[in-house]
């Protein structure tokens, strides 16, 4: 889970800071780096005196590609605000914005001693428990989406409307910037995503009805910590992209393993889109169906129109995912990526964008068919109206 440090930090300086600012942590420290964390380097701190464990999250070193990414300050603020809610999050101890300590801003939080599951199929978990773990993940999301963000002091976390409009604009702009990143060895720019402008236009013109709640921004099984022996969520991690926004974005992120494949190369599987069992095998696995997940969400208080918005949400999530993976490719090109699998994930950006473009074209075709049928239907109704008027006229004679 945590191993050798790939991106070194100044441990003596960190220990001096902790000794003054965080009485719960007693140096000296043993420091290891987690393998997960595509964006912000994440470290396991263990007090060699007490054996207590903590987690440090920091910004990546060097010049950052985007001002909107890597916001560890934002993560800290949200975790602190959620500490007394029904949404389980790790306790945070300190936020340090002084880059002189270890080179970048960072915060320290509680280490949650539970199950970290990266595969949404949950291999090795008993079928009955697997189902309840998925139910707990869905119900935890409902708890988040039904929180009163104003009472939590999070009104300034984002704007109260226009979430997808801003998302489309932001991710399009980020993608354009990322495309210019130049590999330090080849000196070649990584290049733009295919059909970026066409997809941007489609998403802008076909948005679902606007809604606002706290959204996590990357709510997936691998950002959830489950209890060691019980099928329930004990913590939600990685709040860097949390904001006020449309709850559809989180729903799609969570149920993406049950949606048709868009990630990477078509016909291949990955950790983002593992092959699902089907028929009796699915029932025996304990995995829920997509409809069951949506049913749990709406029954718990999630918004009722989520079903009809899923296809658009899936397409936009794929677009957003492609931009995020392009960002990983850009950081890899600059050798700033923190994850050992950054090169692999980054390379998935371009085939993913192609897949999303195919989905968008299908949706465009369906939209045209619907519009065409409405025109025909309108013409029929007009004709019927004229005929009925004529008949009524005849009846009055």
Automatic annotation (TrEMBL):
InterPro entries given in the database record: ACAD10-like, ACAD10_11_N, Aminoglycoside_PTrfase, Kinase-like_dom_sf, Ser/Thr_kinase_AS
Superkingdom of this protein's organism: Eukaryota
Biased composition (Basic and acidic residues): 376-397
Domain called Aminoglycoside phosphotransferase: residue spans: 30-257
Gene3D superfamilies tied to this protein: 3.90.1200.10, Phosphorylase Kinase, domain 1
Pfam families: APH
Segments for region (Disordered): 374-397
Name of protein: Kinase-like domain-containing protein
């Amino acid at each position: 889970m945590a191993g050798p440090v790939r991106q070194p930090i100044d441990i003596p300086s960190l220990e001096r800071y902790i000794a003054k600012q965080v009485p719960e942590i007693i140096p000296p420290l043993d420091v290891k780096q987690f393998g997960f964390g595509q964006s912000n380097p994440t470290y396991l701190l263990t007090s060699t005196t007490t054996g207590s464990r903590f987690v440090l999250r920091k910004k990546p070193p060097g010049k950052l590609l985007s001002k909107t990414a890597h916001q560890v300050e934002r993560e800290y603020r949200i975790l602190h605000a959620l500490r007394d809610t029904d949404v389980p999050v790790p306790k945070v101890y300190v936020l340090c914005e002084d880059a002189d300590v270890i080179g970048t801003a960072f915060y320290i939080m509680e280490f949650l001693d539970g199950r970290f599951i990266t595969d949404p199929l949950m291999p090795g978990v008993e079928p009955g428990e697997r189902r309840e773990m998925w139910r707990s993940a869905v119900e935890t999301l409902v708890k988040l989406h039904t929180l009163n963000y104003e009472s939590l002091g999070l009104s300034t976390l984002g704007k109260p409307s226009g979430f997808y409009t801003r998302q489309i604009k932001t991710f399009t702009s980020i993608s354009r910037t990322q495309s210019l990143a130049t590999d330090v060895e080849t000196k070649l720019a990584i290049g733009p995503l295919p059909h970026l402008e066409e997809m941007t236009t489609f998403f802008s013109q076909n948005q679902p009805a606007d809604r606002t709640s706290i959204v996590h921004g990357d709510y997936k099984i691998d950002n959830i910590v489950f209890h060691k022996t019980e099928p329930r969520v004990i913590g939600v991690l990685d709040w860097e992209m949390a904001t006020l926004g449309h709850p559809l974005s989180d729903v799609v992120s969570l149920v993406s393993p049950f949606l048709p494949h868009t990630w990477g190369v078509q016909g291949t599987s990955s950790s983002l889109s593992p092959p699902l069992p089907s028929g009796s095998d699915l029932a025996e696995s304990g995995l829920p169906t997509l409809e069951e997940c949506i049913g749990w969400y709406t029954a718990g208080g999630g918004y009722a129109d989520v079903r009809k918005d899923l296809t658009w949400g899936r397409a936009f999530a794929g677009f957003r995912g492609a931009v995020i993976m392009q960002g990983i490719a850009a950081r890899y090109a600059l050798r700033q990526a923190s994850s050992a699998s950054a090169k692999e994930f980054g390379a998935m950006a371009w085939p993913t964008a192609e897949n999303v473009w195919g989905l968008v074209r299908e949706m465009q075709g369906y939209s045209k068919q619907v519009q065409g049928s409405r025109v025909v239907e309108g013409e029929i109704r007009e004709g019927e109206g004229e005929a009925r008027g004529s008949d009524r006229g005849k009846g009055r004679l």
